[in-house]
Amino acid sequence: MQQQISVLVAEPNFLFREGIKALIGQEAQFVLVGTCENGNDLIERLIECSPRVLIIDQLGESFNLELVKKAARLFPALKILSISSFTYKTDLTKALESGIASCLLKECSREEIVEAIIATEAGERFLCG
């Protein structure tokens, strides 16, 4: 059996964070190693949990692209998947330039989220929406 993909979820919204946790818990190929509710704790959680994939909403008040750039610089093996409510193509472009490998809309399906985590961990770019 293939090694499970370790995932850290960085999301300030309780309901969305719990939904992603539930999805990850139902998929045998994933293991949730932690969560983070705000940017102040992100780097510390990355050190503690050593995830292979970080799922983050970098457009909210709690996280931003500067923090994403810092995480990408400090943890070069980390693969970053954004799940946000992109409204403009410029947001998507800035996200990809900051070190985010894949981008999903919060409206994406369960199947797309699962595919995106697998593709992102494999070093592939995954875009939906």
Summed up, what is this model?
The chain is built from five helices and five strands. With 129 residues, it is an alpha/beta fold.
Average pLDDT rating: 91
- One letter per element, helices H and strands E, the order comes to EHEHEHEHEH
Chain oligomer state: single chain
Number of strands: 5
If you compute it from the alpha carbons, what radius of gyration comes out, rounded to the nearest whole angstrom? Answer: 13 Å
Rough shape? globular
The total count of helices amounts to: 5
Largest beta-sheet details: 5 strands, parallel
Low-pLDDT residue spans: none
Beta-strand content? 15-25%
Task: Give me the side-by-side strand order of the main sheet.
Answer: 2-1-3-4-5
* N→C terminal distance: 32 Å
- Which structural class fits the helix and strand makeup? alpha/beta
Helix content bin: 40-55%
Could you explain the architecture of this structure?
The chain is α/β, with parallel strands linked by helices and 129 residues long. The protein is 43% helix and 21% strand. The chain has five helices and five strands, in the order E-H-E-H-E-H-E-H-E-H. The protein has helices at residues 14-25, 39-49, 65-74, 89-98, 110-121; strands at residues 5-10, 30-36, 53-56, 79-84, 102-105. A five-stranded parallel beta sheet has the order 2-1-3-4-5, with helices on both faces. It is globular, with a radius of gyration of 13 Å. It starts with a strand and ends in an 8-residue tail after the last helix. The model has no long low-confidence stretch (mean pLDDT 91).
